[in-house]
Specification:
The structure holds 2 protein chains of 2 kinds.
Chain A: E1 2-4, H1 9-21, H2 28-41, H3 51-54, H4 62-73, E2 78-81, H5 89-102, E3 109-112, H6 118-129, E4 133-135, H7 141-144, E5 147-150, H8 152-155, H9 160-166, E6 171-174, H10 186-192, E7 198-202, H11 211-221, H12 229-236, H13 243-254, E8 257-258, E9 272-279, H14 283-293, H15 308-317, H16 319-331, H17 337-351, H18 357-368, E10 373-377, H19 380-392, E11 397-400, H20 406-418, E12 422-426, E13 440-443, H21 450-458, E14 469-476, H22 480-491, H23 499-508, H24 514-524, H25 528-555
Parallel strand pairs in A: 2-7, 2-8, 3-5, 3-6, 4-5, 6-7, 9-14, 10-12, 10-13, 11-12, 13-14
Helix pairs in contact in A: 4-5, 5-6, 14-15, 15-16, 16-17, 16-19, 22-25, 23-25
Chain B: H1 3-16, E1 21-25, E2 28-32, H2 35-41, H3 45-54, E3 62-66, E4 77-78, H4 84-96, E5 99-104, E6 114-129, E7 133-143, E8 149-151, H5 153-158, E9 162-163, E10 170-172, H6 179-195, H7 200-220, H8 227-240, E11 243-256
Parallel strand pairs in B: 3-4, 5-11, 6-10
Antiparallel strand pairs in B: 1-2, 2-3, 5-9, 6-7, 6-11, 7-8
Helix pairs in contact in B: 7-8
Classes of the chains: A alpha/beta, B alpha/beta.
């Protein structure tokens, strides 16, 4: 234990000077007030939370307070905050920063968030927590301001990078931290080299696909907690895992992770009202779809350049999306004559398609709804088409993409809130915007990874949402989409049930790469019947584990 | 700190700094700032710089602070325990109230002059820090003649009637212990007080530190030369190393009746 008990030199010499000069002296009232102020700001105990007393305007939920307490007392200030989307991880993070600041343990904080969330974070910390967070706009901000919010892409680039490395951060916070799952990326390396006394990683989807990703996240936070990379690889990967191994790993992860689920929060959440909207392809669309499908047996299909599954999914979305993919194939230099003629044939078919059945359905729904609507699509070509299509029918919409600059994202959000009826977002734009003023989501095409669906819904089904949330899932009849919807979204009741649970189950089953799994089934099955049987198998497996996990939850 | 306490605190602060109160009602306080307090609180150095350069008439601002949350007719700043304004005023208080000298106001007559004994008072904040933190306030008085040390000195002073001018018919006894060595003695006292405390918290912190250090070493196994290893290791020290510090909040010389 280090003791630095010599009193502050400056005070001592000033005091002696005052004695020598015979003043000036303060008055008794002020002297007493100084002691009173000190008594109020003295921290009486190592444990407990001081922050709530400083935040009279904020009423955190009990689970948020408990999360903050656990991070400070049980996790020594290093944690993955992995609440489900929309439960207010920002509030938990704010409470924790505030607690450490009040205790004088944290002064300099670096907050790295997606570009679209930078201003929102700064605003929330200032308004809700009275934490003077500053958005990094000029390079002097790094060393002159104590609490800085920036995007990781800015921070990791020179000239910022060097300045950031020179700072001595007491706390580093990273939002949407699942983006750091790959240890070979520049972003990962950048964060790894930051000095961090305390660290919070925020993510709603901590175990998206592979165990390795959890390992990478935890190793950023607390290197060695899950062992070295080599050991981890040997212990958990490749071989058949024993129950004890699994349990050991789970216990270890729980030591650094807070994960609240909606069902555990004992709160009344707005309902999720889920509706499946079947779409019937027009004859022309159907004919294009079957033409591509029939290529499964064709020799071109075996070559990697021709992705049948991708094309099938695109056809279900829009002819524009499929067209773009075909065009790209054509532009490849190595293309064979044989393939080229197939592609040209398909393109001709596309040109004969007069309209888009899905878009028409979307229009119908949008027109029947009073409030605002978000449409999610996987494809940019579809996004552009929809914007044009809605425009033709007098409906104003704004686009939203992950690639937009921060200011543009803020602007688009404002436009949507105040002027437009529809926001059309692509996948990458799904994260990092909070749109709780909107109550309707159209899943124009469905991602195959259930976690991504949860990210989408989480944009509106979150704290602050007052009405019920309506989700419309579009599924084109007799296509890959129908299989996906029926498997993931109806039979395992993804939309009603809790995503975290499914995530755990997939991990346990070793089916973390579920997209690839499904894609294999669809591609290599001889008949519809075979597809159905294989999909049913997955369903049974998942449901079996789900019941099991429900049972354990009940008794734990 | 209750809203009412905050109101009273603010009131006392402004009065102690000679700011006239313009208006006061339940949970509302309007004060006219003095030039000094405007400079202290309002953060407008350019205005004051400009005024000094041009020699204009200073026009300090007035400030309305509201502690009653239901008040919505009067415009002003809402002040609560977490408000930056309150903490600014707290630290301003400490800055303005660092040093004091007072005499006990005792009744004496010309026939019987009374002696007043010199005491050194130090109010000290001791902080215990590792990855967690707590504080303890000590108020120590040292009799500058006998060397006697008294704790909870501030509370004892609070019971007395004190005045900045030496009262009539009293005389002060000269200190034998000089203020500088008085401070040194009280430093020793603080050390002794802390030495007697239970320090299991620091042992616990060291255990947490060691545990994390072991994990870190395992993680870097054959790669302890890596730059990130050094960075992480240092971060662990900063996070866990138990440290106790002492800081003087304020203090002064008090002449008291024996």
């Amino acid at each position: 234990m280090r003791m630095e008990l010599a009193f502050n030199e400056e005070w001592k010499s000033d005091f002696l000077k005052h004695i020598e000069d015979d003043g000036p002296w303060t008055n008794w009232e002020l002297f007493k007030l100084a002691i009173e102020a000190e008594r109020h700001t003295t921290i009486p105990s190592f444990t407990g939370l001081q922050a709530p007393a400083h935040l009279p305007h904020l009423t955190p939920h009990p689970y948020q307070l408990e999360a903050a307490r656990r991070v400070v007392e049980d996790m020594n200030g290093k944690a993955i905050l992995a609440d489900e989307v929309g439960l207010g991880k920002t509030i938990e993070a704010g409470l924790i920063i505030k607690e450490y600041m009040i205790r004088g343990l944290v002064k300099k904080v670096l907050i790295l968030v997606p570009a679209s969330l930078v201003s929102q974070w700064a605003m929330e910390l200032n308004q809700k927590f009275y934490i003077p967070a500053v958005v990094q706009r000029k390079s002097y901000v790094w060393d002159q301001c104590d609490v800085v919010v920036s995007s990781i892409d800015t921070a990791k680039r020179e000239p910022h990078r060097s300045i950031v490395y020179e700072q001595d951060y007491d706390m580093v916070i990273i939002d949407e931290a699942h983006r750091l799952k790959n240890s070979r990326t520049k972003n990962y390396e950048f964060v790894q080299h930051l000095q961090k006394k305390f660290c919070l990683l925020l993510t709603a989807t901590p175990v998206q696909n592979r165990l390795e990703e959890v390992f990478n996240l935890v190793s950023l936070l607390k290197p060695g907690h899950l062992g070295s990379y080599e050991h981890f690889e040997k212990d958990y990967k490749g071989k058949e895992k024993s129950i004890e191994d699994e349990e050991r790993l789970r216990t270890l992860i729980q030591k650094v992770m807070v994960r609240n689920r909606r069902q555990d929060t004992e709160m009344d959440w707005p309902e999720r009202i889920v509706k499946t909207v079947p779409i019937h392809l027009s004859d022309e669309e159907e004919s294009l779809y079957r033409a591509v499908e029939s290529l499964k047996q064709h020799p071109v299909a075996t070559r990697s350049q021709f992705s049948i599954i991708t094309l099938l999914r695109e056809i279900c979305s829009s002819r524009e999306a499929a067209y773009m993919t075909l065009k790209k194939m054509l532009e490849k230099e190595t293309i064979e004559d044989n393939t080229e003629s197939i592609i040209l044939e398909l393109m001709k078919k596309i040109e004969t398609i007069p309209s888009n059945s899905k878009a028409e359905k979307a229009l119908e729904i949008i027109q029947s709804i009073d409030g605002k609507v978000i449409i999610f699509t996987e494809y940019r070509a579809t996004q552009l088409y929809l914007q044009w299509f809605l425009q033709q029918h007098g409906i104003s919409s704004v686009p939203f993409r992950g690639g937009f600059k921060r200011s543009k994202k803020d602007w688009m959000k404002e436009l949507f809130k105040n002027h437009a009826k529809v926001l059309i977002a692509t996948e990458a734009g799904g994260e990092g915007i909070n749109l709780q003023f909107c109550q309707h989501i159209i899943n124009y095409d469905l991602p195959w990874n259930p976690m991504r669906i949860e990210q989408r819904i989480g944009r509106i089904h979150r704290l602050g949402q007052e009405g019920d949330v309506h989700i419309y899932n579009f599924a084109t009849k007799n296509t890959v989409e129908e299989h996906i919807l029926s498997l993931l979204y109806e039979k395992i009741q993804l939309f009603e049930s809790v995503i975290g649970q499914l995530d755990e189950i997939l991990t346990r089953l070793g089916m973390r790469d579920i997209e690839k799994h499904i894609s294999d089934i669809l591609l290599h099955s001889e008949s519809e019947g075979e597809i159905r049987i294989k999909m049913d198998n997955i369903k049974e497996l998942i449901n079996y584990h789900k019941e099991e996990s429900d049972a354990t939850r009940k008794y734990s | 700190m209750q809203q009412e306490n905050i109101h009273n605190y603010l009131r006392s602060y402004f009065l102690a700094n000679d700011c006239p109160i313009i208006q006061e009602k339940q949970g509302v306080l309007s004060v006219q700032l003095t030039v000094d307090l405007d400079k202290e609180l309002m953060n407008r150095p350019f205005y004051w710089h400009y005024l000094e350069k041009t020699g204009g008439t200073p026009n300090p601002m007035s400030l309305t602070l509201i502690t009653n949350q239901d008040e919505d007719e009067i415009k002003g700043e809402f002040v609560h325990f977490g408000a930056p304004r309150l903490h600014q005023i707290f630290s301003s208080t400490k800055k303005l109230a660092s040093f004091i000298r007072l005499y006990e106001n005792i009744q004496s007559t010309s026939q019987q002059h009374s002696p007043l004994h010199p005491w050194l008072c130090l109010n000290v904040k001791v902080s215990y820090r590792c990855d967690r933190k707590k504080d303890r306030l000590l108020s120590l008085g040292l009799h500058l003649v006998s060397g006697t040390v008294v704790d909870d000195f501030h509370d004892k002073l609070n019971e007395k009637n004190l005045t900045p001018k030496i009262p009539d018919y009293t005389f002060t006894i000269s200190p034998i212990i000089k203020p500088a060595s008085g401070i040194a003695r009280l430093e020793k006292v603080v050390e002794m007080v802390i030495g007697k405390e239970d320090h299991s918290w620091s042992e616990e912190a060291k255990k947490r530190w060691a545990a994390d250090q072991i994990l870190l070493d395992q993680f870097y196994e054959d790669n302890v030369d890596a730059e990130s290893y050094a960075v992480e290791k240092e971060a662990l020290r900063k996070q866990y190393e138990p440290v106790i510090t002492a800081e003087v909040i304020n203090g002064g010389i008090f002449y008291l009746s024996p």
